[in-house]
Amino acid sequence: MKKLNLTSFFATLLFFSLTAQNYNLELRSSVEFPNQTLANVGGYVQNGKEYGLICAQLGLIIFDVTDPANPAQIVQVPGVDNLWREVKTYGHYAYVTTEGGPVQVIDLGPLPSPNLPVFVYNGDGPIAGEIHNVHALHVDETKGFLYLFGSGAGVSGTGGALVCDLNPDPFHPTFVGEFQSLGYIHDGYADNDTLYGAHIWDGLLTVVDMTDKQNPDVLGSTLTPLAFTHNAWPTADKNTVLITDEKDFSFLAAFDVSDPTNIVELDRFQCTPGSGSIPHNVHIVNDFAVTSWYTDGFNIVDASRPTNLVQVGWYDTYPEQTGGGYNGCWGVYPFLPSGNIIATNIPVAFAVGTGKMFILTPTYKRACYLEGSVTDGTTGQPLSGVSISIDSDDLLTATSTGILGSYTTGQPTPGTFPVTFSLTGYASQTIDAVLVNGQVTLLDVEMLPPPNATIWLEEQGAQLRAFPNVFFDKTTVEFRLPKDATEGELRLTDLAGREVWHQKVAANDATVVLNENMANGTFFLTLHVGNRQTKPLQLTKVD
Q1: Among candidate residues 393, 426, 448, the one where a domain is terminated
Q2: In a shared domain, residues 444 and 497
């Protein structure tokens, strides 16, 4: 997980704002839409031409974006006035959903002609006439099925997933089944009869076998970091799924789903740590996660090593605001053959305003990974909370060690960079690390107290002992301060280097009793006077 310590947060945020608009993404053009907000975005390719499918408040707007510097609007297909609009394609058809009406099926075959046939689908068979709203959708392109999420239609009407067969006639979907047993699904991804569902109200990511559309089989599920799961997208090998939680201060998170019965979180990432910004939609292309972050715009994260998510590109489409809230970048579409990315802004969430479309050209770079562990050079125990920063102009080069003393970080720029390790009570270290794109540099570090603290108090007449040092109910600590000291402090740390107890002592105290309130385990006891200390004394509490 990428972290920034609080003391450097505001300076880092200022640095972000100054550099975000030129970080491996080149703006080619932008278009404003007065009196219309924008929602999600899609794309389509035909006869060598690339098209942007822009979900606007009054209907789908289709642009020719073959020349990214000069996009040309072809048509707006009228739709209900609604702030939520989503689009996916299958063959030469676009499927458009809103919270305010049924599904529009648009035949894109006649493009670049603006005269496009439209079919309105509100259900058939057992759900005929029942589809009056759909929040999101996805197409299983491998098997040819349309999945509709967040609709009140269906047997139970819980807003799960409705499934329609597109194979007989993609212009006229045919209802064949549903998955409603786990309730509302806000968004999802379906491929080869496997559904990855984002259950926003329950905070769940689910993996569902949809082979039998009448009797889906839930293979596994897990809570996401902030339990407000907005969308999900797997990597190409389907071993990893990345999700977004649509809440302030939330994360882009990676989960190992190779065994759906045992889904494991691998890493979590924030675009601007501590700012409160919200991730919205993640898409994955060639193991790069391209994610909209509302007020932060959108970024590119190298997810090819999902245990270490590293940002390698960023463009702030909404510099008017930072932090939490739902204004800014709603969606991104990174799948055009040219590699160009289309992004859309909702200017003021849930209100009429001026939406904006952006077309950008990315420079995809594999991250240079830096990983390792940090230990106490005296005891050999792992150190948590060690701040690690790479002296580089790249973004997100600060992190800290976890409870087991390990860390992961990285950046897109290769080269030799000074890496500084710092922790209160230890001497900071700066070590040069050689970073290479697509490769992992391992750097393990041992940290020692600063030089003036390595003058052991024993050399100045201090004493520290405990009897017994392996104890059941209590142990007696006996100490003597050096002659030049009138007071000191006893400190007890656990195996991870965390302080679990301390007590001020005076020269005339002589003894202290540690009792049965201590947890079982192995600890290290030291006596401190200013920057001086005794050598660690090992104690073990047992039942």
Answers
A1: 448
A2: no
